[in-house]
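User: Structure please.
Assistant: Input sequence and predicted structure:
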Amino acid sequence: MKSRYLSHITFWIAVTVFLIAYYGRKGEDYIQAFYFVSFLVPIALGTTYFFNYYLVPAYLLKKRYFKFILYFIYALIFSLYFEMLVIGFSFIVLVKYQYEKLNQLSIDPFSLGTTLYLIVFLVAFARMVRSYQKMITEKDRLAGQIEKNQRKTITVTSDRKQVPINLSEILFVESLADYVKVITVTDTIITREKISKLEKELPDTFRRIHRSFLVNLHHVKSFNNEKIYIDKHELPISRSYRKKVTEILSK
């Protein structure tokens, strides 16, 4: 959340600096440009967030096109009206009614409107790209999750050999000092694999209940707030995993 706020603040600082440089260079007066942009940016900010964070999700994305177009026209009218107020305010305050001293770009409604809605649509484009990237990332994550959940076996290195293990036969995985024990229905396999690596490779039916234990939920016979019972084994549930584990097992 903090990084999101920081990116928004950084963006608007960049926009402000750019507009000051642009209007200052064109009008050869950076002080006037600074004050003018200070009046203009709040309008651009308000219009941008109203369009991108209210109109688009509330109407465009819900296919309520008539109301989207109607409210967009309202937003356009109000933003241009406030731009006229900025022009009038600049004329009175910045140049004290001396029209010839006004930056000519700052009194051109078309230029101001274009600048304003360029910012609005720039933010809209950035949001669209970010949403697309999130969609691709989520699609890849779901594809990986489906593939992982369809897996029937896992292969670990034990005694310098590749040992395939049937997932349905695994009772639990225990992490010790520098090795891991995979306890199955019929055997115990010792491997140098990290328990965190195995956790990433195993399907959702395997859950961490302790920093040292990863269990197959299909083999859980009973449980309470502190322990899980699998076959003849009694395994502890650590406090950090307790809430999540008991919620899953209670379903």
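The mean pLDDT is 83.
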